[in-house]
Design a protein that fits this description.
By secondary structure, this protein is of the alpha+beta class. It folds into three domains: 138 residues, Butyryl-CoA Dehydrogenase, subunit A, domain 2 (Beta Barrel); 149 residues, Butyryl-CoA Dehydrogenase, subunit A, domain 3 (Up-down Bundle), CATH 1.20.140.10; 142 residues. 57% of the residues lie in helices and 11% in strands. The chain contains 17 helices and twelve strands. The strands form three sheets. Strands 3, 4, 5, 6, 7, 10, 11 and 12 form an eight-stranded mixed beta sheet that branches. A two-stranded antiparallel sheet has the order 1-2. Strand 8 and strand 9 form a beta hairpin. The protein is globular and about 80 Å long.
Length: 590
């Protein structure tokens, strides 16, 4: 397995030239995010990712986490790495100072998270889940719960989980059966949850579970779900962990990938019930979950980016070293590395351009999130929040699907060696596969994009967003501008078709939703690549920069415009002409 090197030059380019780091740093509360501070943060994160986390990636895959004597044991080196992680303050990066955080923008945290997931996705999942639990507690927890739990969760001394899924209730949370019985100022929880990432482990002395359950008098369906905080170890009045709560790990799932990440089946209340505390108001648990869903789904999109970057780096390294055959048209009989073969170049260029498009999208989304929360002007906050809402399913769905594609291409570049576990290429593919399922499958993201984000306002917000993308003139870039304009036209036509068709048969837009989401990702990715090329051309004309880097930016945009963006026309055709064919065969005839 090749080593991981954080792509700091491209990260900095996207942060400053596409995601408006300067504008984010000028927002109230983010004044400390100066260029020097951000550069130092990225350099230190790269060092940890490269020197500590990346070497453990294959170790974790081979050993996995295991359950022995009712204890979950993480792989060799995991505990030391996590200790280094929290002692360096990485868990607290984007949280407010009043909770013990460092108050840096989510834009900066996103770049750092990319490094965690690229270097060691199984490790990066632990702080990612803690981040979600912290966000839920900040948004909806009582002051007492916040004071008791947030300082150690923000620091990473205690980790957090999200407990949604039950065996009979996957994505259908209306079927949740776990019950919570009132008892004084707390509750007793009874039931079982599955697929709980880092549901138990040996990295910290306490784990704080955020659990969906039903009160005895709760109404049926999603309106009757409440959110509870249930610690693994009960916490005394001094904030110290004491007796063990009635939560235990029944088993660990045997998974295709992310072997080092312990995915637990948790049992609550074998006897008297697990002691828990209500978060927010009764019967509003699902609503609370959705308030933090944008951040969680973006985080999974970053996973797709990270694993794709790692797969690309490994494929490129192998292609530059693996000598096989003579290059076509070569005047010498000497064999050469396979990177000289045109089809291998095609695969590497596809991987490179898609990774760069994904990075631009997830960073720009994070910038919009920061502005939606911190901009001084309310109208601007609302405008950026609208972009966050619209693009969240695209970030999650398209980046994870693309991450799977890039990881698969990485195996193909290796040829037969890619199918051999020792090279490590197969691990990236196996690890990437969960990302399209986490936090709602791609189909759920696509339905959200069509049903909630598009049809709720008859496409007004989507059309306004598309119109905003037409403000930049890319004609100075040969062919790129025309490809972007065609892609935007296709996206607008697909939007109109879905809005109009939904009025007659709502099944047809649902059947087209996956392709519509793919169209959004493909076109926005192309627009961002074109914008990057435009900036690169301006920098070349100004002189004084890294000419090779800027020229490569222009060429990758041209590759995307000629190889990836033309797919928008085919996607439009499938959306408008293929939906009826999807539904023509009855389920029992399949």
């Amino acid at each position: 397995m090749s080593t991981y090197t954080a792509p700091l030059q491209d990260m900095q380019f996207v942060l400053t030239e596409l995601a408006d780091l300067e504008g984010v740093a000028a927002l109230p509360g983010y004044e400390e995010a100066t260029p020097d501070v951000v550069q130092a943060v990225l350099d230190e994160a790269a060092r940890l990712a490269q020197e500590v986390l990346a070497p453990l990636n294959q170790v974790g895959d081979q050993q996995g986490s295991r359950l022995a004597d009712d204890k979950v044991i993480t792989p060799d080196g995991w505990r030391q790495a996590y200790r280094t992680f929290i002692e360096s303050g990485w868990n607290s990066l984007a949280f407010e100072e009043k909770y013990g955080g460092q108050n840096l923008p989510w834009l900066v945290a996103t770049a750092v998270q990319e490094m965690w997931h690229a270097s060691n996705m199984s490790f990066g999942l632990c702080p990612m889940l803690t981040q979600g639990a912290v966000e839920a507690l900040i948004l909806h927890g009582s002051e007492e719960l916040q004071d008791r739990y947030l300082p150690r969760m923000v620091s990473g001394e205690w980790t957090g989980t999200m407990n949604l899924t039950e065996s009979q209730a996957g994505s259908d949370l209306a079927a949740v059966r776990m019950k919570a019985v009132p008892e004084g100022d707390h509750y007793r929880l009874f039931g079982q949850k599955i697929f709980i990432t880092y549901g138990d482990h040996d990295l910290t002395e306490n784990i704080v579970h955020m659990v969906l359950a039903r009160l005895p008098d709760a109404p049926e369906g999603v309106r009757g779900i409440s959110l509870f905080l249930v610690p693994k170890m009960l916490v005394d009045d001094n904030g110290e962990p004491g007796a063990r709560n009635e939560v235990r790990c029944v088993s660990l799932e045997h998974k295709l990938g992310i072997h080092a990440s312990p995915t637990a089946v948790l049992a609550y209340g074998d006897d008297q019930g697990a002691l828990g505390y209500l978060v927010g108001e009764p019967n509003r648990g699902l609503e609370y979950m959705f308030t933090m869903m944008n951040l969680a789904r973006h985080a999974v999109g970053v996973e797709g980016l990270g694993i794709a970057e790692r797969a690309f780096q490994q494929a490129k390294s192998y292609a530059l070293e693996r000598v096989q055959g003579r290059p076509i048209g070569a005047q010498t009989a000497d064999r050469a590395p396979i990177a000289h073969h045109p089809d291998v170049r095609r695969m590497l260029m596809t991987m490179k351009t898609k990774v760069e498009a994904m990075r631009a999208l997830v960073y720009v989304w994070a910038s919009a999130l920061d502005k939606s929360q911190h901009h001084a002007d309310q109208e601007e906050r609302l405008r950026h929040f609208g972009a966050v809402e619209l693009l969240t399913p695209v970030v999650k769905g398209w980046c994870t699907e693309t991450g799977n594609e890039v990881a698969s291409l990485g195996i193909q570049v290796h040829g037969g060696m890619g199918y051999i576990e020792e090279t490590g290429a197969a691990q990236h593919f196996r690890d990437a596969r969960i990302t399209t399922i986490y936090e709602g499958t791609t189909g759920i993201q696509a339905n959200d994009l069509v049903g909630r984000k598009l049809l709720r306002d008859q496409g007004h917000a989507a059309r306004a967003f598309i119109d905003g993308l037409r403000d930049i003139d890319f004609d100075v870039l040969d062919g790129v501008g025309r490809a972007v304009e065609a892609g935007l036209d296709h996206l607008e036509q697909a939007t109109d078709w879905i809005v109009n068709t939904a009025q007659g048969d709502p099944r047809l837009p649902a059947a087209a939703s996956y392709y519509y989401l793919s169209l959004w990702g493909t076109v926005i990715g192309g627009w961002l690549m074109a914008k990057a090329a435009l900036v690169a051309q301006q920098r070349l004309e100004a002189g004084g920069g890294d000419d090779n880097f800027y020229r490569a930016k222009i060429e990758t945009a041209r590759y995307y415009a000629t190889h990836i963006l033309p797919q928008s026309g085919a996607l439009l055709h499938t959306i408008t002409e293929g939906s009826e064919a999807t539904l023509a065969v009855a389920p029992e005839q399949l």
